[in-house]
Design goal:
Length: 264
C-alpha cells in the first residue's frame, strides 16, 4: 500500500499529465442526451469563444474523495484531498486505511515536492522532471486544467479543427508541436473525453470526465478517469470527488521534518 500510495501522488504530479456544500449536489452525466447549443459550425472564432466561456473561474478549489490506482497486477483505493491555488500551487494528500496519511505533495509551476511519511523520505525536483515521462509541452497549467475540467488554451490554436459529430456535439482536434490532441465536448459544452498523443515518444494520455457537479455558477468534474501510457507502462487513476468547494480560504501545509531523508 505505501508504495502504491506514493505512486498515486507521483502520477498526479507526472500527469501535469486526480463542491460548495456539505451534501452532494445534483450532478450532470456527460452521457445524458441533450440538444447542443445552436451555434454555427462555420464561425470558428465565435464557437471557440462560447466553448471557452464554459471554463471555470476560481481563486481556490478544494476537492475531496476517493482515488483508485490501477497498475499492472495491482490495484488500490485511497482517500485523496486536492487543494488548488489558481496558477500557483496544487496541494495533495493521500490517506490510506485507518485514516493514516501516507503521503503529501505540492506542485508549483517550477517544482514538485513529495513527502513519504511511512518511509520518512521526500523528493524535491524541478517541474521539468516530469518530462522524463510526459511530453515536454506538459506544464503546470495543463495539469490544473485536467483536474478542473477546463479546456486547455493551447488546444485553441490557429491550426486546430473544430467540428460537430453526428450527434451535434463539438470535437476539437489538431496538434501542438509534437503533441496530437482530440477533445470531445459533452452536451453542456464541457470536456467529455480528451486524448493527447506523442507518437514519436510513445506516450499517450486519455482523460475521461464522467459526472459534472454544479459549484456556484460553474460545472466542475466530480468524476475523472486518467489513463497514462508511456512506452509499455500503463497507469490508470479514477477520481470520484464527493465534495468540491470553490473560493474558500485554504492552507497548504507542507513541512519536511529534519529527520526525513532526501531521495534523488
Amino acid at each position: 500500500m505505501k508504495r502504491n500510495s506514493l505512486k498515486i501522488l507521483m502520477m498526479l504530479s507526472l500527469l501535469s499529465v486526480a463542491m460548495a456544500c456539505k451534501s452532494k449536489k445534483a450532478v450532470v452525466a456527460t452521457t445524458t442526451p441533450a440538444a447542443p447549443a445552436p451555434i454555427s459550425n462555420d464561425k470558428k472564432e465565435a464557437n471557440i469563444k462560447l466553448l471557452r466561456s464554459k471554463n471555470i473561474n476560481f481563486n481556490t478549489l478544494a476537492m475531496k474523495g476517493k482515488a483508485n490506482l490501477v497498475l499492472p497486477g495491482n490495484e488500490n483505493t485511497v482517500t485523496v484531498n486536492v487543494r488548488i491555488q489558481r496558477d500557483q500551487k496544487i496541494w495533495m494528500s493521500i490517506t490510506a486505511l485507518l485514516g493514516i496519511e501516507v503521503a503529501r505533495a505540492v506542485i508549483t509551476p517550477d517544482s514538485i515536492m513529495v513527502i513519504n511519511k511511512l518511509q520518512s523520505t521526500y523528493i524535491r525536483k524541478p517541474f521539468s522532471y516530469i518530462h522524463r515521462y510526459t511530453n515536454k509541452q506538459v506544464n503546470f497549467k495543463m495539469l490544473q486544467d485536467v483536474l478542473t475540467g477546463n479546456t486547455m488554451n493551447t488546444l485553441f490554436n490557429s491550426e486546430s479543427e473544430l467540428e460537430q459529430d453526428t450527434q451535434g456535439l463539438w470535437v476539437l482536434k489538431g496538434s501542438d508541436g509534437s503533441l496530437g490532441f482530440n477533445l470531445n465536448f459533452n452536451s453542456a459544452l464541457k470536456p467529455g473525453l480528451l486524448n493527447l498523443n506523442d507518437v514519436k515518444a510513445a506516450q499517450a494520455l486519455k482523460v475521461r470526465y464522467g459526472h459534472y457537479q454544479k459549484v456556484n455558477e460553474f460545472m466542475m468534474p466530480a468524476q475523472i478517469s486518467i489513463y497514462s501510457l508511456s512506452a509499455n507502462k500503463r497507469v490508470d487513476i479514477d477520481f470520484d470527488f464527493s465534495k468540491i468547494e470553490s473560493n474558500v480560504q485554504l492552507d497548504f501545509p507542507f513541512t519536511v521534518p529534519k529527520r526525513f531523508e532526501l531521495i534523488n
